[in-house]
Automatic annotation (TrEMBL):
<protein>
    <submittedName>
        <fullName>Diguanylate cyclase (GGDEF)-like protein</fullName>
    </submittedName>
</protein>
<feature type="region of interest" description="Disordered">
    <location>
        <begin position="277"/>
        <end position="297"/>
    </location>
</feature>
<feature type="domain" description="EAL">
    <location>
        <begin position="31"/>
        <end position="283"/>
    </location>
</feature>
C-alpha cells in the first residue's frame, strides 16, 4: 500500500511538472507574441495618445495636458500602459515607442491654445539611453513647439541608477528650456534624497496620498499632504495633486495651497482634439469667488 501511494505521488508529481511546463511554455509563447505585436504596433497605427488635463487650482483653467499611451491591440483590445510598458522597457522597444510619443505629443500640443503645456512621461530606459537630449531637441525643432510648453515627467525609479549620468541629462534637458516633473512623488525609496540631488520644477503628489483625503481624512493624511506642498514651496517647485476623484479632495487641496489638480473628477483622459476647450467636470467650487473675494483677515 505504501508503494502504491509512492507511485501515485510520483505520478502526480510528474503530471504537475508536465502541466507546469506546459503553462510556462504557453506563457513564454504568449509573451513572445506580445513582444512581436508591440514591435509592430507603432507602424500599424495601433498606438494612440489620450490626454488628461491638469487644472489651475485657483482659476480652474486647464494649464497642461498629460499624454497617456494607449495600445489598440487587434485581438486583445484596448491595453492600458501598465500592461505593456514594462515589456517595452525590458525589450528596449520603449526607446522608439517613447520617441513616437514625444513627437506625437509635441505636434498635438501645437494645435492647442498658446500657453497650454503638454506633459510626457519618460521611462527610466529612455532617460538612460544615449540619444535622449538630442531627440528632445530635434522634436522641438521639427514640431516648432516652444520648449517651455513641454514638461517631462520622471518617476523616482528612473533616478535610482547612475546618479551622475542622470544629473547630467537633467541639466542638459533644463538647458533646452523644458521643465521637469517628479511623478508619483512619495512612493519611491528615498524621495527626499532625489530632491537634494536633482532639480525639478514640479512635484506630482502620488494618488496614494490624495486618496485618503476623501471622506473623513485622518489628521495624519492631511498633515502629510500639507508637508509635501510645503516642501515643494520651500524648494521653489510647483505642485500637482493627481488622482482626484471626490470634491472634498479638491477643496482640501485648494485649502492647502496645492497649485494644480488632476483626476477623473475634473477630467478623464481624452483625445487631443478635445483638450483645447475642455472644462473641469467639477471645478474648484469657490475658485472664482476666491479670485474676486476680498483677502481674508
Ligand atoms: P502616471 O504618469 O502617474 O499617470 C496617471 C495615471 O493615473 C493614468 O493611468 C491616469 O489615467 C490615471 N488616473 C488619472 N486620474 C485618476 C483618478 O482620478 N483615479 C484613478 N484611479 N486613476 C487616475 P494610465 O493612463 O493607465 O497610465 C499609467 C501609467 O503608465 C502612468 O502613470 C505612467 O507611469 C505610464 N505611462 C503612460 N503613458 C506613458 C508613456 O507614454 N510613456 C511611459 N514611459 N509611461 C507611460
Ligand atoms: Mg505621469
Ligand atoms: Mg503620476
Ligand atoms: Mg501614478
Amino acid at each position: 500500500a505504501a508503494d502504491m501511494a509512492l507511485y501515485a505521488a510520483k505520478d502526480q508529481g510528474r503530471d504537475t511538472i508536465r502541466l507546469y511546463d506546459h503553462e510556462i511554455g504557453q506563457r513564454a509563447y504568449s509573451r513572445a507574441r506580445l513582444i512581436r505585436d508591440l514591435a509592430e504596433a507603432r507602424e500599424s497605427g495601433q498606438l494612440r495618445l489620450d490626454y488628461q488635463p491638469v487644472f489651475d487650482a485657483r482659476t480652474g483653467e486647464v494649464q497642461c495636458a498629460e499624454a497617456l499611451l494607449r495600445w489598440h491591440h487587434p485581438q486583445r483590445g484596448l491595453m492600458a500602459p501598465l500592461s505593456f510598458i514594462s515589456l517595452a522597457e525590458e525589450t528596449g522597444l520603449i526607446v522608439p515607442i517613447g520617441a513616437w510619443v514625444l513627437r506625437q505629443a509635441c505636434s498635438d500640443a501645437m494645435g492647442w491654445p498658446q500657453p497650454l503645456k503638454v506633459a510626457v512621461n519618460l521611462s527610466a530606459v529612455q532617460l538612460h539611453s544615449r540619444g535622449l537630449v538630442d531627440e528632445v531637441r530635434r522634436v522641438l525643432a521639427d514640431t516648432g513647439l516652444p520648449p517651455h510648453r513641454l514638461e517631462l515627467e520622471l518617476t523616482e525609479s528612473a533616478l535610482v541608477h547612475d546618479g551622475e549620468a542622470v544629473a547630467d541629462t537633467l541639466v542638459a534637458l533644463h538647458r533646452l528650456g523644458v521643465s521637469l516633473a517628479l511623478d508619483d512623488f512619495g512612493t519611491g525609496f528615498s524621495s527626499l534624497s532625489y530632491l537634494q540631488r536633482f532639480r525639478f520644477d514640479r512635484l506630482k503628489i502620488d494618488r496614494s496620498f490624495v486618496q485618503p483625503l476623501a471622506g473623513t481624512p485622518s489628521a495624519a493624511s492631511i498633515a502629510l499632504v500639507r508637508a509635501i506642498v510645503g516642501l515643494a514651496d520651500a524648494l521653489g517647485m510647483r505642485c500637482t495633486a493627481e488622482g482626484i476623484e471626490h470634491a472634498e479632495q479638491t477643496r482640501l487641496l485648494q485649502g492647502l495651497g496645492c497649485g494644480a489638480l488632476q483626476g477623473f473628477l475634473l477630467a478623464r483622459p481624452m483625445p487631443a482634439s478635445q483638450v483645447g476647450d475642455c472644462r473641469a467636470g467639477e471645478m474648484p467650487p469657490g475658485a472664482d469667488e476666491r479670485q474676486t473675494a476680498p483677502p481674508r483677515p
